[in-house]
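Let us practice reading a record.
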Amino acid sequence: MRAGPFLFVGGCDGHRELDCDRIVPELAGNAKLQCENAYGRLARALSEAGSSAGAVVRLDHVTSSQDWLPIRQSVRERIFHKPAPLASTGVAVRMSGINMLTVFAIACADAGMKEVLVPGPRYGMANIAAAVRCGPLVFVSGIRGVVDPRNGRAVAEETPDAFAAQTRVVYDVIASILGDCGLTSHSILRIDSWLRDGARAAEDEAICREVLGPVPYASTRTALPLSARGETEVTVLAASAGVEKRTYDDQPGPTVTSAAGFHFVGECRGFDGPSTTSNLALIANPQAQLSRAMGVLNTALRACGSELSKTVRLELYLRDIYFADAAQAMLRETFGDDCPAVVMIGADLQSPVEVKLNAIAI
């Protein structure tokens, strides 16, 4: 999907054939070939849009595990170089079947617009950049807090205070990276936080507000397996210097931020509120919850002068990843031939929430 200076690429799975969507059972457990497939599908989509892997400004990975991270990094290095001139995230999630990797991306329609603002090695990232700009937007790589990259100091792990300690480091580092970009926290349009323990979402938000200040932003906080070490991973999308930001948070529903003709909608839940009689039809009903979440999204977009049909990227978090095919069919019915770039992520959503989503629209 192209919008303005950007290309949005939906989820590219590693367990499917490069040339089609057929699942290949023989790829079970083969991390290298699945990485080749996922990155290959992404590169092909960009090529068909008249672009290339070199234009990618933000590359996201959801994986079955972080145990084979060196394999993924070696394949990525061959395609995107090292350190890759792009922002990136990588988290373990609930995957379907034999799939080990799904990648999705945002690219500059004109690769010449891409600029690395903060090199990764400055913050302990040997393989990627810390912050990259494309036109009106700045993309910050996913940050974890196991080690403070500014001084090499190890942070508490697997202790009662580990979550708070790591989370504070994460937001301190994000503030530092933004400062290196010549930005403040007021430029933040969207924050995505992935947590080991979803019950600590309010604590994550409180620490975020304490460190970054009471700035409005579209947010999604979701529990994921994460894998490896660490309590949380957080990534930020911000407006470039001089780009005006507008916020829509004076109504019920998710916060929406806007900049440069794009609208960023925070999480829209399929179930929100007490389990009252009026909500009984939503319990254990992902179809109904997806419909409700899409309705929340539609209301949020209309409030900022947009509409559902102008969605360019849609991220769905599903308690049951095997609902993905049915969800995709429902989205095709909603959007028709103009379906946005879609990402499906299996998450540890807390019951009774079956579905939540966020979006970027024009």
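A brief commentary: Helices lie at 31-48, 69-80, 162-180, 201-212, 286-303, 324-335.
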